[in-house]
Each structure stands twice: as C-alpha cells, then as structure tokens.
Amino acid sequence: MFAGDDGSPVDLRRRRACDFPFSSRDRGYVGGNSLSQFLASGQLGKSEEIPYALLLGADPSKELVEKYLKSSEIYVARLANEIIGVYVLYPINSEKAEIKNIAVEEKFQGKGVGKLLLEDAFKLAKAKGYKQLIIGTGNSSVGQLYLYQKAGFEMTEIRWNFFIDNYPDPLYEDGIQVKHMIVLSKQL
Ligand code: ACO
After folding, report:
1. Which residues contact 135 (CB under 8 A, 6 or more apart)?
2. Rounded distance, CA 72 to CA 70, Å?
3. Beta strand pairing status for 96-104 and 132-138?
4. Residue-by-residue pLDDT tens, the chain, 188 positions
5. Are the C-beta atoms of 182 and 144 separated by less than 8 Å?
C-alpha cells in the first residue's frame, strides 16, 4: 500500500503509470509485476543524498559502507521519485564486480523489489562488460541466501570470521551470531 495525496492508502495496482513522474535520469521501468511497472531504476545523481538509512539496513558499519562507496556506483529504484531500493556496484577488476550492498525500504520488502534490483544489476554489470558478479552475506541470513541462489548465484567461498574481525560489536540475526561471510557468484 502507498499513501495517496489525501493521506488515504492507495492500492498500487490501481495507479496508472502516468500518475508517477519519472526523471529523465532514470533508465526505464523494470520487471513485469504489479509494483515493478511503477518503478524506475537508475544511478543516484551526484548531487543527491546518499540513502544511508537503507544502506545501513544491509550493512551496519558506516565506516565500511563509506569506504566501499568511494570506489562504487550507487543504483536506486524509485517509486514516484521516492527512493525505495538501492544496490551498490563495486568493481573488483575488469571482469568481476561485487554487489556490496542491496536493500529495500522496509514497507516495500517482500514485494519483489529485491529480485528486480538483482535483475537490474545483472543487466547493468553485463552491459559494463563484467563476466562475473559476486555478493556476500552472513551465515545467519537465510532469506538472503535463498533470494541470491534463486536469482542464480552459487556459493563459492566462506570468509571465516569476517563479521567478527571487521565489525566492532558482535552481530546477531534471528538469534544466530553473524560470524562468517558466505560469498556467492554468478556468471553473466
Ligand atoms: N527472508 C525470507 N525470504 C526472503 C527474504 C528474507 N529476508 N528476502 C527475500 N526473500 C525471498 C522472498 O520471499 C521472495 O521469494 P519468492 O521469489 O519465492 O516469492 C524472494 O526472496 C524475492 O524477494 P523480494 O520481495 O524481491 O525481496 P525484497 O524486496 O524484500 O528484498 C532484501 C530483499 C534486499 C534482502 C530486503 O529484504 C532487505 O532490504 N533486507 C534488509 C537489508 C538486507 O538484509 N540486505 C541484504 C544484505 S547482504 C548485502 O547487502 C550484499
């Protein structure tokens, strides 16, 4: 659901595409489900604020986020000009890039936006000439591991104790300590 101009909830499926203004910077509509027809994806503008609230939802270390953002590109999904999703593409070398961070605004989670962001990343990375895309997540992130494998990623590496060694405080998710990073990769 999405709040209308008068504050009343509006079912997105009842909105027409022309109700949503998209900026010329946006690369176009993504996907084919009911929410996706109203989404536009594109690179975050240089003068736009970095969506830290979203990024920190995926990676709680602002220090690490700021470090990888220096060499990354930020792509966002917008709904009526509101940023509701983000992913960060980090080049490792000319053939390989990493999705360092992916996040969807909480109220829009579970509606297929994450899947669309991944599909967008695959197309974009391929168009940029990358042959392989990798993504890492915690040992405890069962839902994320499901999503990434369903999108075609395969587990390739475990970075043992990554979250213990790189984060100041112990992290827990659903009662499981986040210790190791599971790295998954996908050929493009
Ligand atoms: N738990 C269980 N299932 C999940 C989860 C989850 N946390 N996330 C996605 N899925 C499943 C969905 O049920 C759906 O399954 P289906 O295709 O069988 O119907 C499928 O994955 C696609 O789900 P989407 O609706 O596209 O996912 P969503 O829009 O919620 O985005 C995301 C997924 C980005 C993980 C989002 O939930 C989020 O922002 N979470 C908080 C931040 C986060 O954990 N980011 C990833 C950290 S790792 C990294 O950044 C590299």
Report:
1. 98, 99, 102, 148, 153, 183, 184, 185, 186
2. 6
3. parallel
4. 223 334 333 222 223 333 333 333 344 444 455 677 778 889 999 999 999 999 999 999 999 999 999 999 999 999 998 999 999 999 999 999 999 999 999 999 999 999 999 999 999 999 999 999 999 999 999 999 999 999 999 999 999 999 999 999 999 999 999 999 999 999 99
5. no
Instruction: Report which residue type is found at 38.
Output: F
Ligand 1 centroid–CA 6 distance in Å is 31
Measure 97 CA to ligand 1 centroid, in angstroms. 20
Q: Which residues line ligand 1 (CB under 6 A)?
A: 57-58, 99, 101-104, 109-115, 135-137, 143-144, 146-147, 150
Q: Whose alpha carbon is nearest atom 37 of ligand 1?
A: 109
Length of the chain: 188
Q: How many angstroms separate the alpha carbon of residue 107 from the centre of ligand 1?
A: 12
Q: Which of 121, 47, 50 is nearest to 89 (CA)?
A: 121
Question: Contact 152/101 with Cβ under 8 angstroms?
Answer: no
Query: Do residues 9 and 3 make contact, with C-beta atoms less than 8 angstroms apart?
Result: yes
